């Protein structure tokens, strides 16, 4: 979980109206007019708050004929609300200990003499070790354009799109609007 996503989540929920909307949606889906009526607010105000809640994926919508109903994404709400407690904890990541010798052996098995990746390991533990190895030349705090990151990854492997996606999915990097940044090492799974 990226820190900026956690901060954005809490900033977005830091509004009484949005919390009241979430409370209403816990009982089941409602359309915008019903929410406005129950809260005593105008529909454009409700639309504004619902769009903010949709941005953080806490609310989603479904159309039924001519009416749009809003639903609470309870799983996402719970995941994001508890993320701050899990930062750095064993619940957040699959925890495993690997010796330096084992890491070196894994890297040697999956790279050639020039350091190029022969293949991406299928086993999660080995894949994370290889991905971490590939990140060693990136700088903490630096924001990388997608093209720049692609060029960096190509030093190790031709399929930069897959590797870039793996960096983000494994929580090594954060991506927003085509910009990439390393997450703090405390958030890394290895």
From TrEMBL:
Signal peptide: none
SMART domains documented for this protein: HTH_ARSR
Domain of life: Bacteria
Keywords per UniProt: DNA-binding, Transcription, Transcription regulation
Cited Pfam families: DUF2087, HTH_5
UniProt KW Repeat keyword: no
Protein name: HTH arsR-type domain-containing protein
Organism for this UniProt entry: Shouchella xiaoxiensis
């Amino acid at each position: 979980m990226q820190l900026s996503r956690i901060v954005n989540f809490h900033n977005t929920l830091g509004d009484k109206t949005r919390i009241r909307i979430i409370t209403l949606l816990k009982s089941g889906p409602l359309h915008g007019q019903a929410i406005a009526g129950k809260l005593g607010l105008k529909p454009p105000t409700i639309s504004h708050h619902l769009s903010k809640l949709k941005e953080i994926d806490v609310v989603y919508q479904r159309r039924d004929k001519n009416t749009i109903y809003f639903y609470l994404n309870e799983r996402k709400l719970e995941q994001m609300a508890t993320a701050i407690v899990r930062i750095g904890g064993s619940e957040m990541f699959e925890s495993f200990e690997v010796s330096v010798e084992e890491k070196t052996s894994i890297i040697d098995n999956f790279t050639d003499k020039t350091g190029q990746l022969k293949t991406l390991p299928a086993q999660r533990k080995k894949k994370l070790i290889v991905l971490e190895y590939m990140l060693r030349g990136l700088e903490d705090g630096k924001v990388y354009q997608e093209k720049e990151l692609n060029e960096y990854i190509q030093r190790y492997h031709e399929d930069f799109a897959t590797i870039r996606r793996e960096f983000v999915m494994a929580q090594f990097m954060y991506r927003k609007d085509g910009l990439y940044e390393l997450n703090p090492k405390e958030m890394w799974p290895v």
